[in-house]
Design goal:
Layout lengths: L6 H4 L1 E5 L6 E6 L6 E5 L10 H7 L4 E5 L19 H12 L9 E6 L1 H12 L4 E7 L32 H8 L11 H9 L8 H12 L3 E2 L3 E2 L2 E3 L6 E3 L4 H4 L18 E7 L13 H6 L17 H14 L4 E6 L6 H4 L1 H13 L3
Parallel strand pairs: 3-4, 3-5, 5-6, 6-11, 7-8, 11-12
Antiparallel strand pairs: 1-2, 2-4, 9-10
């Protein structure tokens, strides 16, 4: 692991006066090198990519923006009813800035929620994408409330997804800037046990930097987690229209059109074997938590099973592969949700090998 205290001096920080929101980004690498855009996940920022950027910066022009409402970018309301399209449009403004060159296709890496944003961008602008790396990607059918590999909703109103699916204690602690470790729902504990495999802990300096990044998330109904509406269906909340988790609800977020792209760029899918956020038994999924007894009143596996997130991604990527595109899947044993942090050297070498074959 590289020294986090020296990273800010090694990376260029820029603020782009983009419309409709000012975007902060980290930049490294020669302007003429192959372009790589990194897209962070939920409740995080470009800070999570600093180590990876320095490992790749000698051979690639790497840019990592903070999405609206995260990190050091300005806050702007998220229209959840548009799915992740607003985040993808923000990427377009970054690319139009010229930081990665004008007019040349870029390599995209999306992590977690950022992978969904990257997929949306590819669907909208296939000619602009040279290759796609999906790290621990959210399901193409959004987060929460679906029952099978085809993304069938458990309820017609998509109850169990959206802003109301967030744990209110975690939201409260994020809003309060909590840096403690007195609860399993403290952001520090979430970083240690959910973002990472608990066996793969980070140096203290890194943990503090990443925790600060998490606490910079804008909290509220227009941002994270978003609003919710009552439902007559378990767990009795359904998605509203505003905020990040509504943008990830399958009511508004369906990226399965990826499977219909032909031809499409090559895809590398990387995930950890011990991921507890994106998996078929996710500890962030209402259905699985209900099955465990952590959410009262669960109506049973026939009505509201755990969301098969990995199976959903695999089904869409199999259709994509059938069109003639290359899809590689790599599973890193012992890794959790953040392989680029848990196995940084191996992860960077895997990316380097994949990208250099495609430049």
């Amino acid at each position: 692991m590289l020294n986090p205290l020296s990273m800010v001096a090694s990376l260029t920080q820029v603020d782009l006066d983009t419309s409709p929101v000012r975007t902060h980004a980290l930049v490294v690498g020669p302007p003429e090198a192959p372009p790589l855009l990194l897209i962070h996940g939920n409740v995080s920022s470009s800070t999570f990519f600093q180590d990876l950027m320095l490992r790749l910066g000698s051979q690639f022009r790497v840019v990592a923006p903070d999405l609206r409402g995260f990190g050091s970018s300005a806050s702007a309301p998220v229209d959840g009813s548009l799915g992740v399209q607003e985040f993808a449009q923000d990427l377009q403004t970054v690319l139009d800035s010229g930081l990665l060159g004008i007019g040349r296709p870029v390599h995209l890496l999306g992590w977690s929620m950022g992978a969904g944003v990257a997929i949306q961008y590819l669907i909208s602008h296939p000619e602009r994408v040279a290759s796609l790396i999906l790290e621990s990607p959210m399901s193409p059918y959004g987060f929460g409330g679906t029952r099978d590999a085809q993304g069938t909703p458990c309820w017609p109103d998509f109850a169990g997804s959206g802003g109301g699916a967030a744990n209110p204690e975690l939201v409260r602690r994020l809003a309060a800037g909590d840096r403690g470790d007195d609860s399993e729902l403290a952001p520090r504990r979430i970083l240690r046990s959910m973002y990472l495999n608990p066996q793969n802990q980070l140096p203290a300096e890194w943990e503090e930097a990443l925790l600060s990044s998490m606490l910079a998330t804008v909290i509220g109904e227009d941002n994270y987690p978003g609003e919710s509406v009552p439902s007559g269906n378990w767990p009795f909340v359904a998605p509203g229209h505003r905020g990040v988790l509504n943008a990830l609800s399958p009511k508004y977020c369906n990226l399965s059109a990826l499977g219909n792209l032909s031809p499409g760029p090559d895809i590398l899918w990387i995930r950890g074997s011990e991921d507890q956020i994106v998996s078929d038994t996710s500890l962030s999924d209402i259905g699985y938590l209900g099955q465990l007894g952590a959410v009262p009143g669960w109506p049973g596996v026939e009505i509201f099973p755990p969301q098969p997130m990995v199976a959903q991604t695999r089904a869409v990527l199999e259709r994509y592969r059938e069109s003639g595109a290359v899809v590689e899947e790599r599973v890193l044993a012992g890794c959790g949700h953040s392989p680029h942090l848990e196995r940084p050297k191996e992860f960077a070498e895997m990316l380097r090998e994949f990208l250099l074959e495609r430049v």
